[in-house]
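Bench log, entry 3. Co-assembly request; chain sequences pasted below exactly as received.
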Amino acid sequence: MSAATSSATGMGRWTRLLARWETLLFVALLGLIVLGNALSPFFLTPGNFSNLIAALMEVAIMALPMTLIIIIGEIDLSVESMAGLASAVLGFLWAAGVPMEVGIPAVLVLGAMGGLLNGVLIGRGGLPSLVVTLGTLALFRGFALIVLGPRGISDFPPGFTEIGFGTVPGTLIPWPFVIFAVLAVILGIVLHRTWVGRQIYAIGKNTGAARFSGVRVTRIRVSLFVLSGLIAALAGIILTSRLSSARADAGEGMTLTVVTVVLLGGVNIFGGSGTIPGVVLAVLVVAVMQNALRLASVSVEVQSIALGLLLILSVVTPTFAHQAKSAVDRVRGGRPPPGDSVLQGEASIT
Amino acid sequence: MAEAGLAVGTPRSRRNWLSTIARQRELSLLGIMFVLGGLVSLAAPQFLTVANLTNVAIPASIIAVAAVGQAVVIITRNVDLSVEAIIGLVAYAVARSLELHALDATGAIVFGILLGLVLGMVNGTIVTVFKVPAIVATLGTLSIFRGIDYLVAGPHQVPVAALPPGFVEASVSTVAGIPLFVLIAVVIVAIGTVLLRWTRFGRQIYAVGSNPEAAAILGIPSRLVVFVAFSVCGLLAGVAGVMWVSEYGTINGTTATGAVLAIVAAVVVGGVAIFGGSGTLAGAALGALFLGFIANALILVGLSQFWLQAIYGAVILLAVSADAVLSRRLLRATAEQRTR
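Structure output for the full assembly:
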């Protein structure tokens, strides 16, 4: 039906490309860069770009598995606490004399296990991801507090702080960005070019139908939560390295930014659609926006308000754009409104 | 049907036993609290004294009031993650207006509750008019309300000394031997329960949560119902915010940060199904008391406060798992009985 209406209004290939969410994001990104440049002469310097990217990389890295999780129609609120737990345990192990070569893999395994706990309760137990991950949001943060208490560990070796703070030799590209780029390419290929990706979309569109078509729904659900936990732990390690300090409250409040980035990237909160390139663009938009706000000396408080508004707007805008489009189609084609309202359903039943 | 049940016997009695536990969450919670109380008082005899129980009940009744509002929202199959920011913003607004002598105590209380109501209506509007899923909408307003709180408060902190003396004493005052705050919570639960159980609108709240499509087909104004639920949640968060000022006195921009976990934990432990459509307000309030009980026992047994967060998390996970297991068994038992 939607195909028929769009051809009736004569939407060409170019209009369709223009109407794509990713195109809008790209335009927004260019606009923000122009704005930032007007605000400060330092905005377009490579040094500033390197900083603005580095500051958002933990969030960006966690946004990648979150994209897949939201596409299958679930959510993982516990990522910020897993990052905090990873930071706390890494600091604890280092302070106890465990070398980094052992500490880092141990923390990654811990992340995967935390993800497995989420995955098993949600995938096998059939519990709603919202409550389970709200529970582990508290649980993982609580473990972090138990492990480290109120103290901070900061005497890390120079080689370790290089991970979060250093750049690729000869360039200004921060190492965390390289990690993000590699993960984005791998997950992008998996999601958009493999059968696993097709199955992920299938689960998000219609779980029951996917199961009857032989998709191993439980296995994919559990695996994605394990991946999310693992990558959240990785983000916690990068955060610890970048701040060269391990604290139990590391990463607090990050889940909001992660979810904002994913939804701004055009991923449908109800599952079934969204792309990795969209989320990568959204990461850049948020990074540039935060940097422009900072250069305009807008306070952190206002930035938090802006982020909340952005989250809500990124869900409201597509809905309203869709409604506006169908209203325009209706006027042009003189067709009855599409049967998406409940009243329509009622009429067909009675 | 009754004859068939009598003839089978065993599955029926098993079903009854299970359904008693599943349906009487309030009773089983009370039971657990009694056992726990007994065990803790063996280790720390001061646990079961009137003074200590009052210490538990007063802060728990603040969480209980907020949990009742959250329960109404969860019954409609939504969630409000922004309650802690509403409590925080209301608490600061009330404390600050008292400090500046802009309002007298009554005026500040009314102002705080109305502010909570307005913030709840903002949530309700975003969810029902703009059709943003509750989780996203309230995650966004959590950030927005807290941002406004930080912005208004800045680094300022309202000290206890700046509040009128009667206001602070309200939290420790008693009516006929019962702490005022406990009484407030009990009255709110009682009024809420009557409204939910015996009014048309109350039944509609359950109907929307238990089956939104069916509710819409029956002509129930689902969007209005959800809007009212969020407004009630905001209103009660406002009441909790006013109580917070009276109980804790010192208020700044970070007041009540993280309280949402305790509030949702209380609701879930209290047996309100997260899928919506079932649960009682008394259960949610008892859940809050239960968590307060645990927090207090923790201190008396000598464990650090750092355990609290982990225990809240574990309690949420245990409660939802127990719910799922019980309701699944119940379904199976019912199905078995039907097939025989």
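The two ends of chain B are 11 Å apart (CA to CA). Residues 307-339 of chain B form the longest helix (33 residues).
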